[in-house]
Amino acid sequence: MKSDEAQKKADLAVDGLKSLLEQSQEKVQQQKEQISNLEEEIDFIKADNSYWKLLYDKMMEMTIKKDQPIIKPASEESKSSEQTSPSEVSWLTLVGDSVGKTSLLSKMRDSDFQGPPEHTTFIDRFQFEKEFQAKTVCLNSFDISCQEKFIKTALNYLNAIQCIILLYDITSVESLRRCQYWMDVIKEEEITGKIIYLIGNKTDLGSQREVSAEKANEFKFVNDIDFYFEVSAKTGEGVNSLVQHVC
Fold first, then answer.
1. Do the record's keywords include Cell wall biogenesis/degradation (predicted)?
2. Which residues contact 67 (CB under 8 A, 6 or more apart)?
3. Which of 39, 190, 210, 219 is the most buried (most CB within 10 A)?
4. What is the pTM of this model?
């Protein structure tokens, strides 16, 4: 009898120790996650001063001065052998989660693309020129990271951006719902004075469509979005029309 009671007490003690061990392991895991998050925050803060200053300086370097001629006649440009600066500069940013942002940017650019994109932890930058009739437009685009912890800071710093493109996948209803998050960020952060586009990508997969044009237009109307396009980053359908509209 005594041995049974002793065994029960021993079992209870073991169970108690196991419970304490599990709790300790959970706390250790939580602390590891907290440390990891803090390390990411520290890295972001370190990058903040240097990266955003560099980005802002680059943007300002390319801004056309007020006293610079805006558009040169094509006849004058053809006569001049000197390299001229773009007559206009456009700035835009793309947001969306795994919907083909990089592919769309690659399709938008042409042979005037100036080198590979500059990769950073938070933003990828594409820069290229487009010829439209008598003017050359320098198009600068920023592919914002999908990490929510960076998006608000990124959008606040990019105050020179003229256009925001919300990109979704027409074969994914969830990707359109996700665009609501970005619209909420824009409204919450009071990011005003920007032209906003809602772009449905992957029209080449029309047979797999989950988002109808009517549904997208409803989203556009409810969120007071300026323009709506559908494109295919794979085939190029609608891309040129989008670029001309943005420029």
1. no
2. none
3. 219
4. 0.57
